[in-house]
Write a structure and sequence with these properties.
Shape: elongated
Number of helices: 1
Order of helices and strands: HEEEEEEE
CATH topology: Immunoglobulin-like
Number of domains: 1
Oligomer: single chain
Strand content: 35-45%
Largest sheet: 4 strands, antiparallel
Strand order of the largest sheet: 4-3-6-7
Distance between the termini: 60 Å
């Protein structure tokens, strides 16, 4: 039992050091559908703790689209990834973008963006 507690105490600083994933910038281009260019910042530590997706949601929390991040970005921070062909429901003028990491889940900074009628 003592060894388990020691291991936990040694790992705790590494887990705490990598905070939640933050969205730091979002750009959009919309025609028939939208493309989102999203910049994420997270202190990825490797496969055990990294930003693993970002999502586009309505302001009342309904999921519109998800961009899965398939690997850690330890040496590429912050990083930008895009998602195309996102259909925004009629009447939606703003959306929220949030990130998720493999340890903390959600909780980092989000960004709300206006959906352009023309770009």
């Amino acid at each position: 039992m003592k060894n388990h507690i020691t291991c936990l105490l040694l790992l705790l600083p590494a887990i705490v050091a990598a905070n939640e994933a933050d969205i730091i910038d979002v750009k959009t281009k919309c025609y028939d559908a939208c493309t989102f260019f999203v910049t994420v910042k997270h202190q990825d530590k490797g496969w055990d703790h990294y930003a693993n997706r970002w999502e586009v949601l309505t302001l009342d929390g309904k999921l519109i689209a998800t961009r899965t991040l398939r690997h850690p970005h330890v040496n590429e921070q912050p990083f930008m990834r895009s998602l195309s062909h996102v259909k925004i429901p009629a009447g939606i003028k703003k959306v929220m973008v949030r990130a998720h990491d493999s340890i903390h889940g959600y909780g980092g900074k989000t960004v709300t963006v206006r959906i352009p009628t023309e770009n």
